[in-house]
Amino acid sequence: MALGLVGDAVATVGSLVTGVLNFFTDFFLTPPLKAAHQYLEEAELKTLKGEIKPFKAKALWEKSGAVIMAVRRPGEEAAELSSLKPQLDQLGVPLYAVVKEDIGTEVQNFRPYFKGEIFLDEKKCFYGPRERRMGLLAFVRVGVWLSGLRAFRKGFMGNVLGEGFVLGGVFVIGRGQQGILLEHREKEFGDKVNISDVLQAAKKIPLGR
């Protein structure tokens, strides 16, 4: 019983410390700004396989809707989202990812984690309209350390190249002008989208003709 009380006390203190650290560091984090549907429609993306071709992002969801991940680093988040691929295929909703840069073997290293097509978003439209960076604040947020430890235990090492401090997100976008059905913006490294919410949003997309 004594050990149980000690455990409860430690957990309470840990939660308090985490809450205090997050409260103060939140003041220094740039709050996300929701993306307008038209803003994402006009985003210019580029193919990464074969001949490089630019195209407007709306082509990804115009006829079928889409689930799109704005990738910060390859890893656990991408793998969990990819677990929905069979269900999304049944719904006729494709799964895509956009990366903000193509440095060395970064995209190649990402492919094993992600089951959809990957495109380049050099202007970082899917990371905006207000670009956010975690910076050194990541090192004083308990959630970041716990997420990193969890990912490490599962074998997700990520990489150390490029702009890994830029926060990403996940979008579920409906067919045509149906609009953005879900928009998840990372609050900190390892802040994963709830994949059940992604699936529920995808189910709102009518079947393509």
Automatic annotation (TrEMBL):
Keywords, alphabetical: Antioxidant, Cytoplasm, Redox-active center
GO CC, alphabetical: cytoplasm
One GO MF term attached to the UniProt entry: antioxidant activity
InterPro entries named in the record: PXL2A/B/C
Top-level taxon: Eukaryota
Subcellular location: Cytoplasm
Coiled coil spans: none
Main location: cytoplasm
PANTHER family: PEROXIREDOXIN-LIKE 2A, PTHR28630
Family membership: Belongs to the peroxiredoxin-like PRXL2 family. PRXL2A subfamily.
UniProt name for this protein: Peroxiredoxin-like 2A
Gene of this entry: FAM213AB
